């Protein structure tokens, strides 16, 4: 893959940690993590343990370019915000996103949280949990898949948030996933325009390029 066609924002020669089993059989792919430093961790389902010998046996390092050639599905995650994980669904050929939980390093976690809070320029907190309709947390590798966009932003009476995508039919039940506010706004920047909503308010729009309209509250 030439540098001109490189799909990811990270340097193609940057090292990634990858399960050794994936080098032999990429179909074992289970999940990836893009940490707060923008480094990739690509796994067959195993996580790091406290036993360093086990870690050395289970994981190795590859240049990101080689990892993408081995697992081209990674290119669908070009816009993945740092601090997120993505579970691979081989049947649907799609990724399901989630916000990464704190690490085992409490001091580092505090520094990361402080930096995120300091950099946040919108109302509320970047660490606040947001419920999103499931398709907003999915990234398909099918180029013909419909574009993801938020149709409705709901500020519940208790102050919590719900984002609903255009693929959810009106007045029908739907499944949700939890993301941190910063990740939701990075994935869907236009949501930031209505983060000043008061509890009980609902914003809607008829199309992804239409302005938000206050429809309730």
UniProtKB/TrEMBL annotation:
Domain of life: Bacteria
The name this protein goes by in its record: DUF2185 domain-containing protein
